[in-house]
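Annotated sample (chain length 158).
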Amino acid sequence: MMELSRVFVDVTRYHRYMTHSAMCKIGLGRGMPPVLDYVIRNDGCKQSDISREVHMTPATATVMLQTLEKNGFITRRSDKNDQRCMRIYITDEGRAVAKLGKETLDGFDGQFFGALTAEEQEALTGLLKKLWSSVEENVEKYKISGKENRNETVSEIS
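Output written by the structure step:
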């Protein structure tokens, strides 16, 4: 089991590093493509929608949206019916960089997963989905809120 864990960590770490490097070359942070994609599909959405749908904390979404706005990829405007609510809109530059990001990631993933046959890719996808379902079912059990004693939490997991 230890070897499986080590190989899984190594492969996912490499994939994460390489995708992050590729995104940096075009001016995007690692988590920005899914945000841009969501805004493209839901132009005029709220920040809370983004953080919920792309699975990030509201604080992380705030920082990311500030960066995207500063770079000219999105704009924020007050909702006409509720001045307290800010709506997020994609810009032409945001559409262009999102397209470039998707092409870059697709190209990298094609090379990365190209070592596997189509059948192997399908099997791996099925196994990872099964693993993810298990993780989702147990995620609350393993969360540390910061209030517990770390040693107590570790002993509960063991």
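Annotation: The chain has two domains: 15-115, 118-158.
Annotation: The helical segments are 2-25, 32-41, 47-53, 58-70, 92-113, 118-142, 150-157.
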